[in-house]
Amino acid sequence: MTLETYLAYLATVAVFFATPPGPSQLLMVSNSLRHGVRASTATMAGDLSANALQMTAAAFGLAALIATSAGALTLIKWAGVAYLVWVGVRTFLAPAPSLAAAAPGSTDRRRLFMQGFLTSAANPKAVVFFAALFPQFLDPASTILPQLLILGATYLVVDGTLLLVWGGTAERLFGALRPRARLLNRISGSLMIAAAGLLGLKDVEAQR
Fold first, then answer.
1. The model's pTM
2. CB crowding 146-166: b at 16 or more within 10 Å, else e
3. What is the mean pLDDT of the chain?
4. Reduced to 3 states, what is the DSSP secondary structure of residue 73?
5. Boundaries of every domain in the chain
6. Is residue 175 within 8 Å of 169, Cβ to Cβ?
7. Are 196 and 85 in contact (CB under 8 A)?
8. Residue 89: partners with Cβ closer than 8 Å, 6 or more residues away
9. What is the pLDDT of residues 51-105, one digit of tens each?
10. CB of 190 closer than 8 Å to CB of 92
11. How many helices (DSSP H) and strands (DSSP E) are in the chain?
């Protein structure tokens, strides 16, 4: 892979992310509002872990198999939508003391990780997206595995960086609302429900 090819890939990924926030970004914002961006790095880790598994599936040629199973895609997609709605409604209706209980040191990072993981994994068409994206920048004359590792790592770094930007921005802009825990719960819950709506609107036949 030449430097020019890599820079073209980097530009493509940057353009891909230069869109309105999707479900994972809204979930990161929501959790950053409630728990702070430091604790919400667990949400980011969950999202990136799901992406890494989707990339691995694409690399091993499972994309073609998943693409032929529209029923499975639809089932996983709507399971993810239902999960986000459930979490969003619970957050929206949560009383103020629940936010105080989510102080640094007491946050359940495993739960935040699973939220990020399941939200990203609920979009299984991402496997097909990666399978379509990566070959455009591979040099067949060179060893494929190192190139896939470079492309995959680059995507994860860009994705993770932007999630931190979204979370940090939310924490700074809405930090003044933290004393008003009930209002903050309602904002966070609404963002999660909005994330579910965006996921539900995604066409299972679209790339991502």
1. 0.69
2. ebbeebbeebbeebbebbbeb
3. 76
4. helix
5. 23-201
6. no
7. yes
8. 189, 193
9. 999 888 887 775 565 556 656 556 666 776 777 687 778 777 766 544 444 444 4
10. yes
11. 10, 0
CA distance 121 to 151: 20
| In the block, residue with structure tokens 């032929």 | 68
How far apart are alpha carbons 21 and 29 in whole angstroms?
10
Q: Burial, 29: exposed, middle or buried (Cβ in 10 Å; 0-12, 13-18, 19+)?
A: buried
Six-digit token string for 136: 């455009």
User: H or E stretch including 90?
Assistant: helix 70-93
Evaluate whether 47 touches 24 at the Cβ level (below 8 Å). yes
What region, left, alpha or beta, does residue 164 occupy, with left being phi > 0 and alpha being psi -120 to 50 degrees? alpha
Confidence category of residue 131, pLDDT binned at 50, 70, 90: confident
